[in-house]
Amino acid sequence: MIPRKHHKILVxxxxxxxxxxxxxxxxxxxxxxxxxxxPKRAGSEHLGVPxxxxxxxxxxxxxxxxxxxxIPPMMAKAAAIDACEAGAKMLVCLTEHIPAHDVMEMxxxxxxxxxxxxxxxxxxxVTPGECFxxxxxxxxxxxxxxxxxxxxxxxxxxxxxxxxxLTQQGMGQSAFYGVGGDPMIGTTSADAVRILDxxxxxxxxxxxxxxGGSAEEDAAAYAKTMKKxxxxxxxGRQSPPGKKMGxxxxxxxxxxxxxxxxxxxLEKAGVAVADTPSGIPSLLKERLTSSAA
Amino acid sequence: xxxxxxxxxxxxxxxxxxVPRSELAHDPVEAGRAAESIGPCVxxxxxxxxxxxxxxxxxxxxxxxxxxxxxxxIIGMEIGGWxxxxxxxxxQTKIDRELYAAIVNDSATKxxxxxxxxxxxxxxxxxAEEDPDAMRRVPFSIIDGLTEKNAREAVAGLELDAVEDxxxxxxxxxxxxxxxxxxxxxxxxxxxxxxxxxxVALDCKLTMDDGAAPRQEAIVPMAAPEKRTELEAKxxxxxLKYIELGGSVGVIxxxxxxxxxxMDVIAHYGGQPANFLEVGGxxxxxxxxxxxxxxENPNIKSLLVNFCGAFARTDVMAEGVVSAWQELDPDIPxxxxxxxxxxxxxxxxxxERLGIEPFDLMxxxxxxxxxxxxxxxxx
Lengths: 293, 379
Known about the structure:
The complex is a heterodimer of chains A (293) and B (379). By secondary structure, chain A is α/β, with parallel strands linked by helices. Chain A folds into 2 domains: 8-118, NAD(P)-binding Rossmann-like Domain (Rossmann fold, 3-Layer(aba) Sandwich), CATH 3.40.50; 140-292, Succinyl-CoA synthetase domains (Rossmann fold, 3-Layer(aba) Sandwich). Chain A has 9 helices and 14 strands. Chain A has helices spanning 17-29, 55-61, 73-85, 100-113, 156-168, 189-197, 215-223, 259-268, 280-292; strands spanning 8-12, 32-37, 45-46, 49-52, 66-69, 90-93, 116-118, 124-127, 131-134, 146-153, 173-178, 204-210, 230-235, 272-273. In chain A, β3 and β4 form a beta hairpin. In chain A, α3 packs parallel to α4 (100-113). Chain B is an alpha+beta fold and 379 residues long. Chain B has 3 domains: 21-91, ATP-grasp fold, A domain (Dna Ligase, domain 1); 95-222, D-amino Acid Aminotransferase, Chain A, domain 1; 230-378, Succinyl-CoA synthetase domains (Rossmann fold, 3-Layer(aba) Sandwich). Chain B is built from 12 helices and 18 strands. The longest helix of chain B has 17 residues, at 164-180. Chain B is elongated. The relative contact order of chain B is 0.10. Classes of the chains: A alpha/beta (293), B alpha+beta (379). Chains A and B meet through α4 and α5 of A and α8 of B.
């Protein structure tokens, strides 16, 4: 799904410093926050919405579609399972450094309850002009403008740069989909490309990948079947193998997940790959013009 | 986080997997003494990397004298870039068959997976590449764990006869260890069947999930040290992700993706990045510490600051960099490009306190930093 302004959003960890800061920013932008969770503050109100003891409790009186977690790594598993069992359609998991075994358990709970997990270690999603769910500068009009380009990124900071480049070139975005920098994420780059391919508001897709794993190869396999143009940039060409480049998932190990393999797979699938992020807008324009002709 | 054989094997034993008797030795005298009590033994270099045998780091010894002389040769060797500082003196095992078993985190299924092969020993990865059927892959549920049924499926048809039950138990125990140790990878290669029909782990490789370190305090101190330069170690102690790259353009950026991208764009415009240094995420208030560590690298000829703030507030990061810059007053040029959360305040601050105009386009900032560095390298 793509977050829309009618979607009801729950904030787990709403009363903390970051939870408070970003919930206010989301509210200001138009995101429909209906409640928050903090077991110690249940029954009170925060930022004008009721605070519940758990997501399951919240669901009883304030049904919601999306939950976003501002929860530290060691407590993330319990919070995520709570949200899945409460019936969240989408769970946005910002937390970085959640133990991998916990992440696996979260994915089992999501599958059992039909929840779409975005992340872990995502900066969230922005639907320009409607709402944002996450820790992206959705409110910054120089970065995000409503339009028809769907953007998928493993990294929040690189995704921000690419949206900025698009906006500078007069190309607004239908949606920004931050999928997260962890190795075992719920919604993969290929999943996000598929979602944007099905979105009637999206004409073309910018895919921001990075070294490590096989997300770009999988997205390439899907892109081959698409009519909408896809343009990509892959970060990490200059990164030495065997080192984790910040993200737990960004590592070239045993010759797998390297830049040439990813670029090759994408180009073979008809995806144009830009050498620098600033090259994305012109490639998109080219492709959009030629596909319209 | 990687564990060497001598640290990993006792953890296997704790979960009911048989390992040979062994002692750790740091010098030839200790090695000889250990061999005396153990008998015919194998002298094994302890480094957190594979291919030790091929590098000459594993030798058989029939006597204590021989063990001691092997230890003398092996200690001080370099294997896979790691200096050997200790050897494991391990009792010899009479091997009938060599197998391979591992449990890994599988990102495709988002769950654990058992890997099993009857082609254990050296070069198992290469063997599996040539013959994909040689490696059996059994994904299973993290909730149910590795069941006896999963394990039997993995070893089916291998004519194991008397040892099948023992092997199945070993695999189930391997899973218990994987779970208890928060492993990303727990591998036994070779897992041998001895001449007298026992299943024994002759080697073990453990990679623990870094994210689980806070709840694995008991075993974290046993992990092998990371391969780091002095500055990398210093940065790690400050909780910063810093990697030295040998070029001349210093990089400070926020977020892993943007930092990698900045390095790529520097190379695209004919420069060489000096480092990876990410100040985003939880570290976004540590810009000052980050800068002072980075400036200790004598190869840096120019510095590029690229902020594209999402979660990280660019005004907070810029304040840190500007303060440190004024305090340290380094003799190299600095270039800024700043966008995202807090950009107006950040840009105003850089202009006001350093008299420097940040670039609107990242590419322009990169080109300027590359040109400045290249000029200073050539003069």
